[in-house]
What we know:
Mean pLDDT is 88; it is low at 90-100. The protein is of the alpha+beta class. Helix 1 (8-14) packs across helix 2 (19-28). The termini are far apart. 32% of the residues lie in helices and 24% in strands. The radius of gyration is 16 Å and the shape is elongated. It has helices at residues 8-14, 19-28, 40-44, 72-81; strands spanning 5-7, 48-57, 61-71.
Amino acid sequence: MSQQTTPLYEAARMLNLGPIKLYHALRARKVLDKNNLPYRCYVQQGLFTSELKSYEHPTLGPKMYATPNVTDKGIKWLAKEFEVEITEASNNTAPEGATH
């Protein structure tokens, strides 16, 4: 039951929304908590996930943190919520007939 997820900051770019503005708006709408992680009800709906990551702090040693990800269903939900269209900027294919 694995699903495709996209980091939330990347989803903001796909929706032509600034990542900072999107995070702020989602916190204001009680979709994200103060740590920018999705509330359980949105995870259970299949809109968001969290990914646990780690890094090596120079003096404190290994530290864990979580980042928010959006499912494909969640990206469509965000587009509807913010009344924007999804751009395919993250795809490697250019529109037909596009040249540089």
